[in-house]
């Protein structure tokens, strides 16, 4: 039960890279365990003081072979629970937060209060510093229903796939099959450009925006 499992965390409606987010990991002693992790993976072998850039999302097509991700993909996978995610349609330019950019959309699964991204995690330790748990999520080509917004999307697993994704003995072929068979039953709605600033937070950010608030027309996003 996602809601009961991470109710101890403050709800966030605008999550930026390096934010602490909840992840679900498989613990050999305690079964499933929920803990916080920095969004932006730092591999256990990383030696530099600054974390690697652009480590929030791993392309599923290269995750098994790219050095940044491959160790975690092989044996240290997790689930990242969320209500949904934002994506920006670059073909619908709107003005907001002092700049012009793509129309933001909130994407979720109808009927499910929470979903789970296929994700990876790592424990990074170096002399003189506290150990840090970090994570990154997998992406794949967008499902047909939301491809008009952006060509890629997070890998969203179905509940029946959770155990197999967390199984440390799962093979590369089995894991990639889970990615290929992940969820595609998404709904989208345009939301306010207030989401463009991480200073803004709150449940109103995921509400469907009126035309006057977005400066554009609703191009078919589901209510």
Please characterize this protein's 3D structure:
- Strands 1, 2, 3, 4, 7, 8 and 9 form a 7-stranded mixed beta sheet that branches. This protein has a 3-stranded antiparallel beta sheet with strand order 5-6-10, with no helix packed on it.
- The chain starts with a helix and ends in a 9-residue tail after the last helix.
- β7 and β8 form a beta hairpin.
- By secondary structure, it is of the alpha+beta class.
- The longest helix has 9 residues, at 67-75.
- It is built from 5 helices and 10 strands.
Secondary structure: elements and pairs:
Elements lengths: L1 H4 L14 E8 L3 E9 L17 E3 L7 H9 L1 E6 L2 E12 L2 E10 L6 E10 L7 E10 L10 E3 L7 H5 L5 H9 L6 E4 L20 H4 L9
Total DSSP E strands: 10
- Low-confidence parts, pLDDT < 50 over ≥5 residues? 1-8, 211-223
* Share of β-strand residues: 25-35%
| Helical/strand content category | alpha+beta
What's the rounded overall pLDDT mean? 88
Shape: globular
Q: What about the largest sheet?
A: 7 strands, mixed
Helix content percent band? 10-25%
Discrete helix count: 5
Separation, N- and C-terminal Cα atoms = 26 Å
Which H/E pattern describes the elements?
HEEEHEEEEEEHHEH
